[in-house]
């Protein structure tokens, strides 16, 4: 584990800990300026890839999501699966909350996975998370589908790529790349009906509602920082307030 002031020259390829704005690529400087909101322990040696800055969940938001999911289901569900672990922000929050017997974090990018494991160590929860390297759809199929895993809850913070993500007033979730909202809900609901998805704040709510049966409900919750919405999290199944625990 690296700490403030320690030599960081031996980081794995693609992983960075920027200390000064002059080191930071211009297109992520505004995110780096918010680094202590993203990871409160950033100065203790948090690792990030350059792409990770665009998708990491800010720590206060990750903590609120972890609290919601931990409190929403009162029965024996014991496994939390984070399908797009990234740099580890959400998995760390879930582990710190202490609700789950198993937390399984999946990430297909080896560099990002190195960052996530390291960052979990900085927060003291590295031993509370099981890490899987690979495509989340394949890992879920290989390790979590079937009657031997009946107590799982799924969290997804997928990539938001696609036309219009930053410019459209209402974001078409079917154009989200590389996975559309339909792909995500269809695949992940085979593992668990208790599903949470972290999405752009401008997401088309009608598209989200269309993915549930008429007699089912969902919650769409905006998470704000400094008076502005940062993102939207949609909760299906018993994670919804209308769901039954």
Structure explained in plain terms:
The protein is α/β, with parallel strands linked by helices. It is 27% helix and 17% strand. A seven-stranded mixed β-sheet has the order 3-2-1-4-5-7-6, with helices on both faces. Helix 7 links the parallel strand 4 (152-156) and strand 5. The radius of gyration is 18 Å and the shape is globular. The model is unreliable at 1-7 (pLDDT under 50).
Give structural attributes:
245 residues, alpha/beta, 7-stranded mixed beta sheet, 27% helix, 17% strand
Strand content is 15-25%
Number of helices: 8
Q: Report the end-to-end length measured between terminal Cα atoms.
A: 39 Å
Number of strands: 7
Taken in chain order, the helices and strands follow as: HHHEHEHEHEHEHEE
Structural class: alpha/beta
What's the Cα radius of gyration?
Answer: 18 Å
Shape: globular
Strand order of the largest sheet: 3-2-1-4-5-7-6
Brief digest:
By secondary structure, the protein is α/β, with parallel strands linked by helices.
Summarize the SSE layout with pairings.
Elements: H1 29-32, H2 35-38, H3 59-72, E1 79-82, H4 89-97, E2 102-107, H5 110-122, E3 130-133, H6 136-143, E4 152-156, H7 181-188, E5 195-199, H8 205-209, E6 218-225, E7 228-236
Parallel strand pairs: 1-2, 1-4, 2-3, 4-5
Antiparallel strand pairs: 5-7, 6-7
